Amino acid sequence: MKVVKVRDVLIGEGTPKVIIPLMGRTDKQLAEEVAVVKESEPDMVEWRADVHERVDCLDEISGTAAQLRKDLGEIPLLFTFRTDKEGGNRELSEDTYFRLLSKIIDTGMVDVIDVEYFADKLKVETIIQQARENDIRVILSNHDFDKTPEMGEILSRLQGMQEMGADIPKIAVMPRDMEDLFTLLQATSKMSRIYADRPIITMAMGKLGLISRLAGEVFGSAATFGSGKEASAPGQIAAEDLKLVLSTIHKYQI
Ligand SMILES: O=C1C[C@@](O)(C(=O)O)C[C@@H](O)[C@@H]1O
């Protein structure tokens, strides 16, 4: 299994890594949030740029990225613009979405970018190439806020992401019942043990999905999102609580 190294963090080795989202709407809010979030010692911070009021002002966003980079020191920074189609907070045309990602890569201020797998294939491939040339890792992602696809479909999406060149394939689903949760866990286990040659990230959202956020080391998800000041998806628990459970599971794993 290939381990993905982001600064000093090794994703795919040992305890699942804890990523804390930043949900600030302004630069000032982001700066305050970073100060709070750093106290939880995250392995990585995710800037959820779709929440930022000025995200469509592409010239300003570079300044915000630079400020975050400075405030975070050595903590790895993941840039995510979650589109409204996939449960995000803002609508952007696909062209603007990719222009934003391209601009962010050019700043050199982020370590990882999230790219939505179901966006235009050619554009996704081009942005992966650009990220690679700039030594930035790519998470290809997919979110289903309504349901949990069949296991075969989850596996085929994760494999498709891997084939397209994602450093880390990621899927988040919404379970409607316990069977759905089992489906996600089983797909995670199969993908990580049989098909994946790199780390993957999966989660079932909502209250029913909680165990999937805690037991990544058992089923094969290499990272998990925990809230700092504000959760970015249903079912996320506080990063401190998450860390306690992750380290306890790690301690007793064979
Ligand atoms: O893709 C994900 C996972 C997530 O949706 C979750 O369920 O924790 C939270 C998002 O901020 C992140 O981009």
From TrEMBL:
EC number: 4.2.1.10
Keyword hit for Transmembrane: no
SUPFAM superfamilies associated with the record: Aldolase
Enzyme class label: lyase
Domain of life: Bacteria
Pfam families in the cross-refs: DHquinase_I
Residue positions binding 3-dehydroquinate: E46, W47, R48, R82, R213, S232, Q236
Keyword terms: Amino-acid biosynthesis, Aromatic amino acid biosynthesis, Lyase, Schiff base
Reaction(s) catalysed (UniProt annotation): 3-dehydroquinate = 3-dehydroshikimate + H2O
Pathway: Metabolic intermediate biosynthesis; chorismate biosynthesis; chorismate from D-erythrose 4-phosphate and phosphoenolpyruvate: step 3/7
UniProt family annotation: Belongs to the type-I 3-dehydroquinase family.
Function field: Involved in the third step of the chorismate pathway, which leads to the biosynthesis of aromatic amino acids. Catalyzes the cis-dehydration of 3-dehydroquinate (DHQ) and introduces the first double bond of the aromatic ring to yield 3-dehydroshikimate.
Protein name, per record: 3-dehydroquinate dehydratase
Organism: Virgibacillus sediminis
